[in-house]
Write a structure and sequence with these properties.
The chain has one helix at residues 32-46; strands spanning 9-14, 26-28, 49-52, 57-61. The protein is α+β, with helices and mostly antiparallel strands. β3 and β4 form a beta hairpin. The two termini are 16 Å apart.
Length: 63
């Protein structure tokens, strides 16, 4: 069985439009409050977990 990390990452949520690119949905937000809110909603909707990358970016991962 082959495992590819992009199949486990559901979304990226970031305040930095220049830093995040890739093959998953990316949600751009304006501030930390919106970052937390959007990440939480996406995680609840997808039954995923939120991970803070400590650079103004969160990812939602389905484990």
């Amino acid at each position: 069985m082959e495992i590819d990390i992009k199949h486990n990452i559901v979304a990226a949520i970031t305040m930095h439009t220049q830093k995040v690119e890739g093959g998953v949905p990316i949600f751009y937000v304006k501030d930390k409050e919106e970052l937390v809110k959007v990440a939480t909603y996406i995680a609840k909707a997808t039954l995923g977990m939120v991970h803070d990358l400590d650079n103004g970016t969160y990812i939602v991962v389905k484990h």
